Amino acid sequence: MHLYNYLLINKKRLNRKRYVPLRQVQILHDWLEGKRQSRQSGRVE
User: What is the pTM of this model?
Assistant: First the structure.
C-alpha cells in the first residue's frame, strides 16, 4: 500500500505544469548576469 501512495503522489507532482513565464526567466537571467559581472555569488532554488 505504501508504494501505491508513493506512486499516486508522484504522479500528481509530475503532472503539474512545468513552465515558467518568459518575463520571470528574463528577470532571473538579468539578476544572475548582474551577480556574475560583479563577481558575487547568486543562488537559485
Answer: 0.53
